[in-house]
Design a protein that fits this description.
The protein has 182 residues and is mostly beta strands. The protein has 1 helix and 12 strands. A 6-stranded mixed beta sheet has the order 11-8-7-1-4-12, with no helix packed on it. The longest helix is centred in the middle third of the chain and has 11 residues, at 93-103.
Length: 182
Amino acid sequence: MCPPCELTAGFTLDCKDTIGGIKAIYLQQHADFLSGVAFNGDEEVDTLPTASIYKYTCPKHTGSFNEEVASSVENGTIFYTQTVAATFFALSAARRKQLELVAKNRLIVFVQDNNNNIWMVGKADGAEVTAMTTSTGTAKGDLNGYTITFTAEEAHKAYRLESFTSTPFDNFASITVVAPTI
């Protein structure tokens, strides 16, 4: 076994103190993050380049972040498929226009989970919209809104950002979070 692949630690049984789901996603063009990303000793992101990112708030119980490994024993390769799914309520012309712009880009997707971890999806190669649905619904209780799926294929698992103090990205002076307006 090559030294860089040697194991360095095991896991203990953790407390049952985490919950599923995501609170928000933050988007920006992948090109803005091609350089200026640095890591601490735990491989958490501790430096980001100067950029504005756009916040998209997810209604509770409607968003997720999943990561699956794809490994080929025959070829000696491994990569990770990172998938972010989000739902947004209410159809509108302004939302339609923004989601069309989102779909046409290669993106960095920052995912804030319900445990207040922030994950960087698509760091090396970017994330792209691989599915989007606009729906009026059928019954009165059905979704009137949008569902969107972002997918990235990366050589490494998604990186976690260092913990923020009180609001997301407050520990990254170079990042401006643009609040939702529509």
